Amino acid sequence: MAIFVTGGARSGKSHFAEQLAAKKYSSGIYIATSEALDDEMSERIQKHQADRLRSGFLWETIEVPLQLSNTLQQLRASSSDEMQHRVVLVDCLTLWLSNWFFALEAEERREELLQLEIQKLAEEVKLYPYPLIIVSNEVGDGIVPMDALSRKYRDEAGRLNQAIAHHCKQAFLVTAGIPVDLKRIAFQWEEL
Hints:
alpha/beta; Rossmann fold; 7 strands; 48% helix; 20% strand
């Protein structure tokens, strides 16, 4: 069962996702999509690693900046009994999207290739049979970005979130550290 967790910057979404994992499972695989491209990001990564270590929950960390769908496919193929009781936590989708934006920067078919990666990931989330928590950012709730590339990124992040959340049994929005179960309160067309 996949669970989607989203929210703004510093909303508490990663902390909530980690707490949710620790409450429901005995151990986990933490798929980190960020890359330490500068000193500030290195410090952030080190802080997150230290926080996970201090939590006492047993995490195995895998760094996957691009090949997220392939990694989920490999984990899905493992079909071990252990995976039934081990959660996979992906943190975070918008960093994964940023990584693809830069990896495809020089490609003529950039948009098409990006859509293929998003479709592959959505399909893997749909097929993944074991516990899975996916963290993402809500980047479209703020001001409209000034430049075309930032607007394109914001639009793709929104589409990515929709594609992944569609295949998740639960979806949480975290604001000011308070999680709200979106699918529980979602409007149902049948109610009309």
